[in-house]
Amino acid sequence: MTQEFCYLTLIIMSYVHLVCASPIGYIYNASYSSTSIDTFIKYNQTCSECICNAFYSQMIPKYLSFNCYTSNKTCALFANYSATSTIQINLDSTFIFLQKPPSQVTYPLIGVTVAGYSNGTSGTSLDALNAPWGLAIYMNNTLYISECGNSRVMKIHEGSLNGTIVAGFGGSGNGNSQLGCPAELKLDNYSNLYVDDNSHCRVMLWRINASTGITAVGVDGCGNTNRTIGTSAGFALDSHGNLYISDMDYHRVMKWPPNSTVGIVIAGQTGVPGDTNKLLNTPYGLYLDEKNSYLYIADMGNNRIQRYNLNMTANGTTVAGGYGAGSNSSQLNGPHGVYVSKKTGDIYIADRANNRIQRWSQGASNAVTIAGITGMTGTNSTLLNSPVGVIMNMNETFLYVSDRGNNRVQRYQLT
Question: Which pTM does this prediction carry?
Fold first, then answer.
């Protein structure tokens, strides 16, 4: 048996009654040698029952496959079949390849409150938030949330609404254990936490389990030199430890190598706002696509998202918005946060003044509103109020939004 059969067009087998969907190919008397098995399913009469169970499961990949064993009426589901996997002969099974049907997602998505109070109330207790801003997520879906209003960073495990303070103690201040209206935050590969300390023109590094932070950028205070930054709202971190910081006061983005006291302007021009492809106006959130050497900038004052090639940073390319402040599908109004899907390249934008999350596909001239309703605020599960941050979990099954005006973080299921 060879693997080419998995690309055959549909062939209906007389002894299999397909209810939910049809196979796109099959191999007779075969077994899959990989150990990447998600689950076993018992069936009563035919293999089609396994197909139904597969499509109604929470499995994420577009393609899947399974072995149907006739001797004990079980199916082994596989979520990650690849053409290089080995097929072995087994007289007791049939290997079937499937494609999931198109998703019937309707917008706006229904949000679930995973941090803060769903009714929008602010607070200082460990189950409350006050003006959440930055978001970071660990591999087990543990959330890190910066709170501008409480000048702290909370760590909240999945399934719990009670958090733990991991950075920012003793209220707002510029001490080593304090923060002032923290904005974006990032985790490095060692779970150390970097926090954009917005009010104090610095980035603080909190090593894992530390009670105080270290100033990574901004030891000389606020300013517009190559040793200082103004108030900043966004930053990114690459695998080499370089920091990319949006300096909204001085309309620039700077790169700071590890342990350096001097930064380099890589986008915009110090102190010069503008709307050309070389200039920025009050840049906010950043997203780094390190694989493709792209830096995405929420150019808030110009109501657009700019993409810079880090190998040639002189000019930016507008990849979303850029048609002035507005509420139609081609416009943005005060974009704050930006995130790019590693799977699709779609751009997700926290369009703050329009109270919505926009999804902009590559090369598109307009966007789809996937969360929130344009121009409306509220605390029900379909509404937002001044969203500022947006991220996805590792496998991109969930989208998380800092619903700042409602003092909560909302989670949306994407698949």
Answer: 0.77
